[in-house]
Amino acid sequence: MTELRCPNCGKVFSVNEADYAAIVSQVKNTEFQQELDRRVAELHEKQQAELENKELKAKQDYEQRLGAKVVELSKKDAEIARLTEQVSSAVQAERLKFNQELAEKDTEINKLKAQAEQQEQMVQVAVLQEQNKAKDDIQAKDAVIAELRSQMAAEKNAALQREQSQKDHYEQELRQKQELVDYYKDLKARLSTKMVGETLEAHCSTQFNSTMRPVLPNAYFEKDNDASGGSKGDFIFRDYVGDTEYVSIMFEMKNEMDTTATKHKNEDFLAKLDKDRNEKKCEYAVLVSLLEPDSELYNTGIVDVSYRYPKMYVIRPQFFLPLISLLVQTSQKSVQLQQELALAKQQSVDVTNFESRLDDFKDKFSTYCVRASKKFEDAIKQIDETISKLQKVKENLIGSENSLRLANKNAEDLTIKKLTRGNPTMKKKFDEAREASAGGEEAAQAPDHNLF
Hints:
Mean pLDDT is 76; it is low at 189-197. The chain contains 10 helices and 8 strands. The protein starts with a strand and ends with a helix. By secondary structure, the protein is an alpha/beta fold.
């Protein structure tokens, strides 16, 4: 017998071995099933978690590989874009023309389709009226539509072929440019540093003399040998219309070895080029450079650096002749304006000179008039002074005449009697003289005449 205690009431009771074995078996089966269910649930959750972790890890690995592929594809796309950018700029014009032609063809096709659809609608209406006749018309219209579609497909194929041909052509040009770049790289590897620069100068000189010289026979294109200002450029280009210089360019050619330790930049030579341009009185300044070979800015074409220095450009050697042609054509348009401006300036100078001469004449005339007026006033003043002096002389003469008249009157009134009055001595002398004179009265009168 086995005693068992009730967990609820605490009562002890006895059971035989068979009942005890049955109870134990029942309890074991229940606990085992619960434990089994718990273990199964835990295993299921663990498997589920592992599965989710594996899926998450696989997803992360996939995303990482996908990101790497995306980065790799983006690099390849960038490389393809860089390689095709040079081709696309040249193809763009032809493609635009092709797109315009294609758009015109599509418009024409749409118009024909609209006409065909309109005709088909008319055919359908006719089918309702006359089925036999409509069948023949539908077949004819279908044939026209098929022919139009065939023409459209042929034109599209031809356009695609032209586009492919243009693409092949520009790809071939790109390969040729790359071969030229490889050639120059190989050439630079085999030359000294001084010979590299001189080879670029010789190349540009040869290009100009062989290509531009027949077009511009009177143009001046020579090396700049004048270093009186402390420095000099490489080449000077000038061209004339008659005696008028309408364009002038100072050229500087720069290159260096790939193995040079200190790499120069194009910006290192801009200030010197601007100084040389100003000293030689050139309108434009151009740096022909093979420096910074990996720069996308300078590899795309003509680079305008006028924001740093006026009318200055940086180019690769392949743009040497196109830039000269562009500047010549642009400057030729301004020659007539320059001549008209010079004529207008000359006319303005003539008018200014005429006005200046007129003003000078007015000033001189005014000066002469002032001088003449002053001299006239001086002469009038002198005449007035002379008249005043003559008036005084006249008055003096008139006064002298009165004095003489009074003197004459006094002389006429003077007699011996009046003279000897009150003077007995003189009277006695006159009486003796009168008596001694042989002429009587004549002797007596002679003293009177001598006295007066």
